[in-house]
Amino acid sequence: MKPILVVNSGSSSLKYQLIDMVTEEVLAHGLLERVSDHGVAFAQMLKEIAAGEPRLEGISPVAVGHRVVHGGTAFSQATVVTDQVLTQIHELASLAPLHNPGNLAGIEAAIAAFPDVPHVAVFDTAFHQSLAPASYTYAIDTAVASKHHIRRYGFHGTSHSYVASRTAEFLGRDLADLKIIVLHLGNGASACAIDCGRSIETSMGMTPLEGLVMGSRSGDLDPAILMYLSRVADYTPDQLDLLLNRESGLVGLTGLNDMRDVSLAATAGDPRSTLALEIYAHRIRHYVGAYFALLGGLDAVVFTAGVGENSADVRARVIVPLAHLGLTLDESRNAVSGGGARKISGEGAAVSVLVIPTNEELEIARQLLDVLEA
Ligand SMILES: Nc1ncnc2c1ncn2[C@@H]1O[C@H](COP(=O)(O)OP(=O)(O)O)[C@@H](O)[C@H]1O
Ligand SMILES: CC(=O)OP(=O)(O)O
Ligand SMILES: [Mg+2]
Q1: What class of enzyme is it (predicted)?
Q2: Topology adopted by domain 3-123
């Protein structure tokens, strides 16, 4: 047995999996929500693992993998955690204030609990280090951009990379021959254009705010709105941050943060929820069209994460209007809920439309092993 603990410390949650990397069997997993102190949450997690699974008594991880959201340009692959790496992650916190501080707290708690095993950080941004300058450069004064490290970094890379590999496996094709658009639709959401296994464009930007409509984040908007609000309504930077990161997206449009609730409300006839669903799908279609153009061809569109894997309604709202791009949906296949990787496009379609459950924790554990074995 080769047990590896994977910790995904979010802004307010801690997700974990203990995986035996000989068989890739999940020995224990869990989610602690509304976490304010990651040290306390970590201790709670260890108790849960010990209490829930008597067979795990005495089993201790041989290494710990950590999701870190922002790696800036410093990290293009999984990295063994050292004091210097911790300092760098800390310095990147200003670019990801919702995510990096929690990630760091989780790493520190894990090192205190398991001081004698290697800890490896796996960065959301790493997969997007392949972006070309034309896609990662914002068209602003280059001196300002360079001084303040302003560029597109992109996020959810661990998920996009895992899902792209699973897509190739599922289609029985070589990843190096495929053009894929992955739609990671969770609480945070992003699209990614993947050519030959490399990320060539992605919708999140310098921070995880840009791009698609999310649970509580606005995604794309005219940046002049910020100047306008600060001038006419005295919004401070912190108030703008709160508005766009926590009070926008689905919650701003409907009062509801969870896609399940928005769907139910729309079905019950609430016009705000119906409009929110239309905006949500419209933005996704906008990116699918753009990425189709950038990729210069398309083999698969893949839905993943909480909304992508579970909402047949959202998938239909995205795909059905895109018939002119060769995208089709088989209604009965789309209606199936649960299960693993599956095709939901019609028979003989030029482009495969797939649902592929993501597994960031397994991907983190695999990358950890690659680093330690290298
Ligand atoms: N059956 C479902 N129908 C629609 N949305 C769902 C369903 N199940 C889960 N979701 C949505 O998935 C989102 C969470 O996705 P997840 O990938 O777990 O996000 P995160 O990892 O960012 O917390 C929630 O907003 C929830 O609305
Ligand atoms: C980067 C990001 O938005 O992550 P999450 O979806 O977990 O919030
Ligand atoms: Mg997630």
Answers
A1: transferase
A2: Nucleotidyltransferase; domain 5 (3.30.420)
CATH architecture of 173-360: 2-Layer Sandwich (3.30)
DSSP 176: G
The number of angstroms, rounded, from the C-alpha of 257 to the middle of its chain's C-alpha atoms is 17
- Give per-residue pLDDT as tens, 308-353: 999 999 999 999 999 999 999 999 999 998 889 999 999 989 999 9
205 touches ligand 2 (CB under 6 Å): no
Tell me the residue type at 263.
S
| 306 known member of a binding site | yes
Q: Is the dihedral of CA 291, 296, 297, 299 positive or negative?
A: negative
* C-alpha 281 to ligand 3 mean position (Å): 19
Determine contact, residues 218/244, Cβ cutoff 8 Å: yes
Sheet holding 14-20, edge to edge: 25-32, 14-20, 3-9, 63-68, 119-123, 79-80
Q: How many angstroms separate the alpha carbon of residue 258 from the centre of ligand 1?
A: 7
- The CATH 3.30.420.40 portion of the chain extends over 3-123, 173-360
- Point out the residues that are catalytic: 124
Orientation of helix 157-171 relative to helix 360-373, angle to 10°: 90
State which of 259, 314, 315, 317 you would mutate to test the pocket of ligand 1, scoring each by most atoms of that ligand within 8 A of its C-beta. Answer: 259
User: Which pair of tokens denotes residue 72?
Assistant: 């800036």
DSSP assigned state of 127: G
H and E: helices and strands count for the chain = 15, 12
Retrieve residue 357's tokens.
Answer: 């459950």
- Answer yes or no: is 30 a known binding residue: no
The token duo for 286 is 């906008």
Contacts of 150 (CB under 8 A, 6+ apart): 138, 140, 144, 206
Q: What are the strands, taking DSSP E only, across the chain?
A: 3-9, 14-20, 25-32, 63-68, 79-80, 119-123, 179-185, 189-195, 198-202, 300-304, 342-343, 352-355
Phi, psi (degrees; rounded to nearest 5) at 281: -75, -35
pLDDT by residue (tens digit) across 22-31? 999 999 999 9
